[in-house]
Every structure is written in C-alpha cells, then in structure tokens.
Specification:
Rossmann fold; 13 helices; multifunctional enzyme; flavoprotein
C-alpha cells in the first residue's frame, strides 16, 4: 500500500494542469448581493483561472464596471451590441469552460428559463455548451413562488446546476431562504462541475442526518480532551447532500470557522454524550445517517467544577477515563431491533493509522465487521493527513470486505463519491 500524497495540495490550472488557465464567465444580476461577486472573481483568479465578468445592466447599479475590470483584468460589457466586431455575444460563451451566475435574481431565472437572449449574459448562456452554475439570491417569497420554482425545475431539467440558496439575513430586516451562499461556497461547488462531478437531484425527498467535527470532553471548565478534526468533511457532505435535494440535519461538534451548509439545519454539541443524545433523538426520522464526526472514545470519569491550578496542589498527575458510548454500533443495533427503519442507510468513518497489528485498511475492514454499518469511509490520518486539510482520500468499504479507492480530491469531491455510494445502496433496497 502506497502512502498518501500531501492532502492539501491545491488544484492548479485546467484540472490540475498549470499550463493553461480555465476560462470562466461570471454573470452578475442586479441584486443587492452583487457585491459578493467581487469575492467570487478573486476566488477563481487566485486559482490561476481567467475570469470574464458579464453583468446585467442593472447589476452595474450595485457594482461599477471599473471594479469588475480591475479584479478580472478584462473589459466589461452588458449589451449584445458592445464590440460587435468581436461577436462577443457568441465568442464569450463558445470559449467558456464554465459559466457561473451569482447572484441570479428571479427575473434572470425567468429569462434564462424562457431562452431569452436580450442582453450579453443571456446570449452567452444560450451559446455556452460548458457547465452552467446558477446561484439564486432573492427574498423568500420570490424564491418560493410557483413561477420561480417552475423556472428552477426547467433549468435543472436542461442540465443547469441551480444551487439551493442559503438561509439567513436578507435585505432590510427580513430573514429566510433566498440569501446568496458565501463566495467560497459558490466557488467550491462550481469547481465540482469543472471536475466533471454533477449535483443531480437524486436525494430529493430523502432526510439525511450527518455528524461532523470533533467532540470535547471536559477536564475542568477550561481544559478538555479532544482531537484534531476540523469538521470539513462532514460539512462538505452536508453541502453536497443539500444541493442534491436532501433535507439535511447537521449535528456539529468542534469545527473550524466553516460557512453553514446552505439549507441545512445545524445543531451544535460539545461532548460525545451530547452527540449520542442528539443522534438518538433524530435517528428515527431520517433515511440516511452519516457518522462523519470524530467522536472521542473516552472522557474523564470526573469533571472538576473549577479550574485545576498547579499552585494549589490539586492538579492531577493522571486522569481516570471512562469509555464513551459507541454511537455507530448503537445505530446498527437500533436498526436490528426495529427502533429505526430497516431501510435506513448507515455510514461510518474510520480515521486510522497503520501499526504492528495491521495496515490502515486492515483496521478499517475489522471495524466494518465489528460495527455492522452499510458503508465505511476509511482515511489514513497519519503524518498530518486529512485532519484540518481541504483535501482527502481513502477507501470506501462495504460489509462484504470490498474496498473502493477514493482518489485524492477536495472534500466536496470526496463527499460526492460517498453520496454516490449512498444513492446506489438506497436504490438497491
């Protein structure tokens, strides 16, 4: 078994080829979230890509052409009659490797669905044969209107990736669904499409419970026992599951400062027992349960009520530990007993290192036999791999002992591969 390459190596150029930047068209519609497009431009250009911003005329009421030109290094035009000698309304779309529209207003969604070509952006979209990613942003009432829902369905039927919007503060005092996802989320999800990974609506109608991050077991009010998990893989699973149509609940322990997955309900916990309680309370209501959290195996038997001070002589020289509940095995037992549905898909994770008793894969194979889950994602976490990194790799293991290689990729890419397997398992039941 070969060792993993560094898990944090960023992709460069065209699919990892640094010789030629990818041509990305960023469409910007006239909504208050247009200012976030500036950060999206930067997100792509910092990866070595060439970005051409094509705003609507109304978008320039929010962000001036000079700003987009300075950030992208390309001229900005809005009308099909601009630079007619260069046939821009055809050429820009023909040369694009990816079209991203962020924000997309309700009006622009309607024009795209109708096949309009009354400005440079809509004409470009009609010409483009590359992947198209649309990030809507509007008030909740507009997003939920039957006309908008029909337009979204039409675009998705044509192969356009229409992202689910975030929930949160909108214009004025309003809050709800319709907020533009954070720029880094839009860039990352768009890069999935460039990698040839789709976001089909194959989890529509499914309720998916995902755990993420590490647990912290208190020693006293200041100190805790924990692990190096950042929560990135669990958050990536939630992000992709939502975009594939699932109703997602994310139970998150200690995590990095990660943006909330769009549309997911997030429940915060700290300890393994809190995680066990939340999973137990929700397991019966979900079709898929993915245990991506790094759960502490042990906790201090006694938690000091006040900080243990070195000078007082109360600081312990050792800490007695008690084993935490095995949440994954408990879920499998609940399915066997009929407490949760027999068709519930249960996915576990194994963060392993090789030792004298076996390789990483050996330990993972023993774990899936012991736990009894339907699928196990195994990671080699030795030498600083995986934890806290933006990339991942490993193996997907099934109960019959087969192991499928998951090649190095971003954690969103790995999440997509895991969910592909979940969809196959679900379809077979």
């Amino acid at each position: 078994m070969t060792s993993n390459p560094p898990a944090d190596t960023p992709p460069t150029g065209n699919g990892g080829d640094s010789r030629s930047p990818r041509n990305i068209v960023l469409g910007v519609a006239g909504g208050i979230a247009a200012y976030k497009a500036c950060h999206i431009v930067r997100g792509f250009t910092e990866r070595g890509d060439s970005v051409r911003v094509v705003p609507t005329a109304s978008a320039l009421n929010f962000v001036g052409a000079a700003t987009f030109e300075a950030l992208s290094g390309h001229p900005v035009a809005t009308d099909v009659f601009d630079r007619v000698d260069q046939v821009q309304h055809v050429r820009i779309g023909q040369e694009a490797d990816l079209v991203v529209i962020a924000p997309a207003t309700a009006d622009l969604l309607a024009r795209l669905a109708a096949g309009r070509a009354d400005d440079l952006l809509t004409a470009t979209c009609l010409v483009a044969t590359c992947p198209v990613v649309v990030a809507p942003a509007m008030h909740t009432e507009m997003w939920n209107h039957p006309a908008t829902r029909a337009n979204v369905a039409t675009l998705r039927d044509r192969g356009v990736t229409v992202l689910e919007p975030a929930h949160g503060r909108l214009t004025g005092a309003d809050s709800g669904a319709g907020r533009l996802p954070e720029p880094e989320q839009i860039v990352a999800l768009s890069l999935l499409r460039l990698a040839g990974i789709g976001l089909p609506q194959d989890l529509s109608g499914r309720r998916v419970l995902i755990t993420a991050g590490g647990t912290r077991e208190s020693v006293d009010p200041v100190r805790y026992l924990g692990n190096r998990s950042s929560g990135r893989q669990g958050f990536a699973l939630a992000e992709v599951a939502v975009q594939r149509g699932a109703d997602v609940t994310l139970i998150a322990g200690a995590t990095d400062a990660l943006p909330t997955p769009c549309g997911a309900e997030v429940i915060r916990i700290s300890s393994a027992r809190e995680l066990a309680d939340e999973v137990d309370a929700r397991a019966t209501d979900h079709d898929v349960i993915i245990m991506a959290a790094a759960v502490a195996d042990y906790r201090p038997s006694v938690t000091a009520p006040s900080k243990l001070k070195k000078t007082s002589g109360s600081a312990p020289t050792s800490i007695e530990l008690t084993e935490n509940p095995d949440i994954l095995a408990g879920l499998v037992d609940s399915r066997r007993s009929g407490r949760i549905g027999a068709d519930t898909v249960i996915v576990g994770f194994a963060a392993e290192t090789g030792d004298g008793e076996g390789s990483v894969l050996d330990h993972a194979l023993r774990k899936i036999r012991r736990k009894g889950c339907d699928l196990l994602m195994c990671n080699d976490v030795g030498s600083g791999r995986v934890f806290g990194r933006t990339r991942n790799r490993g193996w997907l293991i099934t109960p019959d002992g087969s192991a499928t290689d998951v090649p190095d990729g971003t954690k969103l890419e790995v999440a997509s591969r895991i969910l592909d397997s979940v969809v196959r398992i679900t379809a077979a039941r």
